[in-house]
Here is the input.
Amino acid sequence: MTLKQSLENIFKTKFLRTVLFVSLVSVIMLPVYIIFFVYPSFTELLAESAENDAIRAATHLKDMHISTETALTKDSLSPDFSEMVEDVMKDFKLMKLKVFAPSGEIIYSTDPEDIGKVNKKWYFHQIVAKGKSYAKLVRKDTLSLEGQMVTADVVETYVPIMVDGEFVGAFEIYYDITVTKEKLNRLLSRSYFILFAVAFVLLVAVVASSFKAGRSIAERRQAEKQVVKQNVELAELNSELSVLYTISSAISRTLDIDELFSIILDTITSREIFKVERKGGIFIVEGERMHLVFQLGLTETFVKAHDNMKVGDCLCGLAAKTGEVIISTDSNKDDRHTIRYPGIAPHGHIIVPLKAMNKLVGVLYLYLPADTEVDERVQNMLRSIGNQIGIAIENARLYKKTKELSLHDPLTGLANRRLMYIELERSFAKAKRYETPLSVIMLDIDYFKKYNDTYGHAAGDKLLKDIAEIVQQSVRKADLVARYGGEEFFILLPETRLTEAYAAAERIRRAVERRTEVTISLGVSSYRQDMQIKEDLIKKADEALYQAKERGRNRVELSA
Here is the structure.
């Protein structure tokens, strides 16, 4: 094959033509990319590093040598401030340093000629004075932010001095990056040379490979028909695997059962391979009952029509009974479709049983346009997907049950100490940040040990459950009741002042006295600004409870 024929094959083949074009463009674009992106990016990174160094130097100087709590003046600087500045400039390798009063007047500078000048620029009063640093890369032989000619590449940084949120002055620091920038330029120059050399070699290799490929194009085209056929088969297989993987990945993202139901329907109904409509639902099977736990795109009429579903009812019940995928092409013509309601339109169904370890946990029902056929390949996929979903649902249910057990007291069903501390931490942080009221109640059953010894532990357990129920009924839904330990209970009252908490405690005390054979003592405390940690709130309530015990029991005491 001649060179001319090879060239013709190359330019007739879109792929090879594209490869050559992309290769040439890449070689041309490489220097453009380096000049307009890489170099500016490195320079910007260098400037950012210098700015951070300047901020650290300013912070060090402020923390070590400026103790004023009012606006900086010439008189507020210590006599040895200049010596301190010299040390800082040596330590941080600074080029120049100025100190500004809040008005913008320079009250100190390593260049005495600057002292007394006033910075009236917008950035000083609109950015720096607001507590934000401001920096600019000033190139050699150009003007600085203050209009002064610089003889080196510097990063000019303004760092505000803030005391309790008030602007009391600012530092201006010149950080010389000339040497570092020159080193960077040399490093980048070597890198450019290597990249250009590599790009040139790659271009030569691409051109050579393209010529070689061009010589074999004719033979390859003859085999393309067989390859296309194989590709179609592989594409179908890959499509199936992709769908299975997508659905598997989607349902494994969460253990929250309500979120899982939404993910299942959204993922499956969006897959074109199934040819289903964007609606459907999930039944959970419990014994002979089927409960509609989630639905997508269906009416209230449909939901009411499927209340009290039993295994064996309609198509979904049949799938639950047989454990097999059910296909219905037209609901109006299918005698198995026994549940009908006004306004029902002709439609088809795919009903998929959801299994976990051969145990039926639910049913997934999907909608098809009427008279749509479903091939065996899709049915097998849905059967496999049904097993994945069944396992995911069972895992989510177990997770939900385990989570509830880990956060609740098994005897009373109340929150345990773990959940109590989680909620208390959240409420305490909110009260501290927004200064909102927060109260807690510590509750203890009077003479509980005596009650246990007299009536037995079974009676004692029943009493604990009865009191837990009474307390729950006596507080708001927003309040949290927890079993603190033994016969002690803890009540968290968000958005509640001390007097309101006292009234709630008294209401609980009276209810227990009225409805049980025992009495209780209660201690109440409320959040105060001097409390630093949540345990302070518990401690105060516990102290108040101790006072209630000491003063005769069956009473409510407030914390001091």
